[in-house]
Design a protein that fits this description.
This protein has 886 residues and is an alpha+beta fold. It has 30 helices and 28 strands. The protein has 4 domains: 3-43 and 112-220, Calcium-transporting ATPase, cytoplasmic transduction domain A (Distorted Sandwich); 236-302 and 675-742 and 754-885, Calcium-transporting ATPase, transmembrane domain (Up-down Bundle), CATH 1.20.1110; 307-332 and 536-667, Rossmann fold (3-Layer(aba) Sandwich); 337-532, Calcium-transporting ATPase, cytoplasmic domain N (3-Layer(aba) Sandwich). The protein is 47% helix and 18% strand. The chain is elongated and about 115 Å long. Belongs to the cation transport ATPase (P-type) (TC 3.A.3) family. Type IIA subfamily.
Length: 886
């Protein structure tokens, strides 16, 4: 179907929809069944069977399986079967870990999927773009990604960037008129919008004519979902570390095997013990456990209203030293309320808060009614130059659209100016707001077919364009005295932390067109709105917590400098000698000049999104790790350039979300603080289980090495080594990844991004604890072996049990950098349950007779357990007392 050739009425008839009502719920359901979801076919995922088989592709596991085969051929059937079962269970654990990580990432993709505004049953609503169907009426706004192929039916300065489709990055102007030409390529269909392309300017509406694989993008398959797994810097570091540890482990294992053979042990037994030791000692699963820990942390962040789009951001969050945050909606409630209007040279005060239409206007102590000159006209113009609407839900008014526009609608309702009044006028043309123009205009036609222009915007932009102003007796020339009085009113409102918005009007002559460059000049100034967006209650404590954590908070706003300063002082962002910079000052400064004063600056007022990029670069050149927030399409470059780009989940555009690493579901500054806290905790948890696994592995290698150096029998048999690797290392290590943040997490400074994994004494802790675990295990073996050299199985059971208990006690030691006594063990019930399950499995292999010959164990007495517990607790208790004394 050549949709571009049809006019709007023909398309409505073919798709059985009307542009002012949209589809019904029944039609939507039928079309979803007919066409399916609005999704491109993703690359096929690895099958579960292949994912399971992948767990056995590791070189050392293959060597172990070969050794098991040899054991079977030599008649050691029990050992062979036991090792095979352990390898199989280990593979299953790895498989489920990968499945969990994959599901977490899939859920993440689903949460961060683009949204679209659709008209259904006469009501605009936001839906996930995959739920769009053919015939849906969609609203197109600057910064959005077009959700499916759409025939544009209304356009206001609408431009799209179609480089994903054509390779051409220049914007394409769109219109709503049918094109009669035949056989046009997609890039020439200028009344069509295509799935996946971006709206860079203007606004409009359209009818969906193709979804999913029936779109131009679907046909050329150029927007396939990228399913390639991206590794984070930490995962890459650990993979490199793993290679080093493999070499070290293999050398030490080879030394154990050679010494054993020299001392007369059978080559086969030493080979199998060596392979088992290598499998247990090499932390081949470390990157996988890191991925799972990151995925679990990401799930916790989602519960705290933050979606991590890039896993690498989790690591970077812990290094953040500066948060550059928008004010409106992030630090404030984003519920603008008009509290004051300046009209006829007077300040009128408005009662009522939020989106409640109950309220009155007062001039000093006296209530003002509709007879007050110019007030109703000003409120009507604010209602007409507006893209928002009011909706009533459960008896309360809600704003659908921009909160500032919503505040003007509520202000008009308080004076009795209703939507019915607005229906007497027809919007002919809209000149949309953007961050460069700082104003919005509409051309309106009244019932007498007279046209006039209404412009609203920042007072410093609008006032120079005004030649007249309204007085009680009518329009007058705007002279210097009148201009000064308006500027004085702006300053007074700003001192009261009110955001100001000016409104001007101009009658149009027949010769003036919407495209004229000077259309928005010679305006008549009608008045000022003074509105407030109250700070969120939770933001002030969050800023204080960030300060204690060594993180500087910087407020960035388009507000008047006095308004910005007043709010910054209210939130304790601006210290006594802190600087405030305006956009006009930034225009005159280079990045280098800004760099000289950036550390002393806490507020940037009257800035454009272009200034944000300069601010990010200046902070980065001072060595800071910067988190930058934004919501508009022009914020994307700064967000992309920052170390942690943060976009708004509610007000943010799709362009901004795609450039960001973190999406705030509630657009709340406190959520950024929570994300940084969680990011720090995730990194610390990763360090915790690195510490636990490597210390345990060092202990396992050293007990075998020391025994060979002392010409003792093997303290551990291969199946015991593999059991320890499976049960004692796996479950507690995973549970450590779910540990809550320590109380001082947000009282430490930001982590240096160049800092190694083993910094702050982690390496020495691993070696020292590993040495002690190996030593106490050997002591237990020697004491038991001395008592009865003939009973080697008893001595090996003592060594095996001591090693397991030392590791299970040590896991609680790993929860803090201080000591095992620093934290309540029951804070992490997952860890308690993991340790109890490992302990239960240990008791099973010691006391259940059918398993004793398989695991070379024998029952232990209460006296044996007393010795085991004392030796097992010794490494953690010794260091615990030593740390407490410090």
């Amino acid at each position: 179907m050549k949709w571009y050739q049809l006019d709007v009425e023909q398309i409505e008839q073919k798709l059985h929809v009307t542009a002012n009502r949209g589809l019904t719920d029944k039609q939507v359901e039928q079309r979803r069944k007919e066409y399916g979801e609005n999704l491109l076919e993703a690359q096929k995922k690895t099958s579960r069977w292949l994912l399971f088989m992948k767990q056995f592709q590791d070189f050392m596991v293959m060597v172990l399986l070969a050794a098991t085969l040899i054991a079977g051929l030599l008649g050691e059937y029990i050992d062979a079967i036991a090792i095979m079962v352990i390898v199989l269970v280990n593979g299953l654990i790895g498989y489920f870990q990968e499945q969990k990580a994959e599901k977490s990432l899939d859920k993440l993709k689903e949460l961060s999927a683009p949204m679209a505004q659709v008209l259904r049953d006469g009501q605009w609503e936001k839906v996930n773009s995959k739920d769009i169907v053919v015939g849906d009426i969609v609203r197109l706004q600057s910064g959005d990604r077009i959700p499916a192929d759409v025939r544009i039916i209304q356009s206001s300065s609408l431009e799209t960037e179609e480089s994903a489709l054509t390779g051409e990055s220049l914007p394409v102007t769109k219109h709503a008129t049918a094109i009669s030409a035949d056989e046009l390529d997609p890039q020439d269909q200028t009344n069509m919008g295509f799935m996946g392309t971006m709206i860079t300017r203007g606004s409009g509406t359209g009818i969906i004519v193709g979804t999913g694989m029936n779109t131009v993008m679907g046909q050329i398959a150029s927007l396939m979902v990228n399913t390639k797994k991206m590794t984070t810097p930490l995962e890459r570091k650990l993979a490199e570390l793993g290679k080093i540890l493999i070499v070290v482990s293999l050398i030490l294992t080879a030394l154990v095997v050679v010494l054993g053979v020299i001392q007369g042990h059978q080559i086969y037994h030493m080979f199998l013990a060596g392979v088992s030791l290598a499998v247990a000692a090499i932390p081949e699963g470390l990157p996988a456990i890191v991925t799972v820990a990151l995925a679990l942390g990401v799930q916790r962040m989602i519960r705290r209203k933050a979606i991590v789009r890039k896993l690498s951001a989790v690591e970077t969050l812990g290094c953040a030293s500066v948060i550059c945050s928008d004010k409106t909606g992030t630090m404030t409630e984003n519920k603008m309320t008009v509290k004051e209007v300046f009209v006829n040279g007077d300040h009128l005060y408005v009662t009522g808060d939020g989106y409640d239409i109950r309220g009155d206007y007062f001039l000093r102590e006296k209530k003002v009614d509709g007879e007050y000159p110019n007030l109703e006209s000003m409120l009507l113009y604010g209602m007409l130059c507006n893209n928002s609407s009011l909706q009533v839900k459960r008896g309360k008014y809600l704003v659908d659209g921009n909160p500032t526009d919503g505040a003007l609608l509520i202000a008009a309702r308080k004076m009795g100016v209703s939507a019915m009044e607005g229906e007497k006028y027809r919007i002919v043309k809209e000149l949309p707001f953007d961050s460069d123009r700082k104003r919005m205009s509409v051309i309106v036609e009244d019932s007498n077919h007279m046209k006039f222009l209404i412009t609203k915007g920042a007072p410093e932009v609008l006032l120079p364009r005004c030649s007249y102003h309204m007085r009680p007796n009518g329009r007058e020339l705007l002279k210097e005295q009148g201009r000064n009085k308006i500027e004085q009113a702006i300053d007074q409102m700003a001192d009261r932390a009110l955001r100001t918005l000016a409104i001007g009007v101009k009658p149009l002559t027949k010769g003036e067109r919407a495209e004229d460059a000077f259309l928005e000049n010679d305006l008549t100034f009608y008045g000022l709105y003074g509105m407030i967006d109250p700070p969120r209650k939770e933001v002030k404590p969050a800023i204080e917590e960030c300060r204690r954590a060594g993180i500087k908070t910087v407020m960035i706003t388009g507000d008047h400098v006095k308004t910005a300063k007043a709010i910054a002082q209210n939130l304790n962002i601006l210290p006594e000698n802190g600087m405030v910079l305006e956009g006009r000052q930034l225009n005159k400064m280079s990045v280098t000049e800004l760099e000289d004063v950036i550390d002393d600056t806490y507020v940037f007022a009257r800035v454009t999104p272009e200034h944000k990029l300069k601010i990010v670069k200046a902070f980065q050149q001072r060595g800071h790790v910067v988190a930058m927030t934004g919501d508009g399409v022009n914020d994307a470059p700064a967000i992309k350039a920052s170390d942690i780009g943060v976009s708004m989940g509610i007000s943010g555009t799709d362009v901004t979300k795609e450039a960001s690493s973190l999406v705030l579901l509630d657009d709340n500054f406190a959520t950024i603080k929570s994300a940084i806290q969680e990011g720090r905790n995730i990194y610390e948890n990763i360090r915790k289980f690195i510490r636990y696994i490597l210390a345990s592995n060092v202990g396992e290698i050293l007990v075998m090495l020391f025994a060979m150096l002392l010409a003792l029998p093997l303290p551990l048999v291969p199946v015991q080594i593999l059991w320890v690797n499976l049960v004692t290392d796996g479950l507690p290590a995973m549970a450590l990844g779910m540990d809550r943040a320590e109380g001082d997490t947000m009282r430490k400074g930001p982590r240096d991004p160049k800092e190694g994994v083993f910094s702050n004494g982690l390496g020495s802790r691993i070696v020292s604890r590993g040495f002690l675990i190996g030593t106490v295990t050997l002591i237990a073996f020697m004491l038991a072996y001395q008592d009865d050299p003939a009973n080697l199985i008893y001595a090996q059971t003592m060594a095996f049990t001591t090693l397991v208990m030392a590791q299970l006690i040590h896991v609680f030691d790993c929860r803090s950098d201080q000591s095992i006594f620093a934290r309540n063990p029951f804070e992490n019930m997952y860890l308690v349950l993991a340790v109890l399950s490992s302990l239960l499995l240990l008791l099973v292999v010691i006391y259940w007779e059918p398993l004793q010959p398989i695991f070379h164990t024998t029952a232990l007495s209460m006296h044996d357990w007393m010795l085991i517990l004392v030796l097992g607790a010794l490494p953690s208790v010794l260091f615990g007392f030593q740390t407490n004394r410090k």
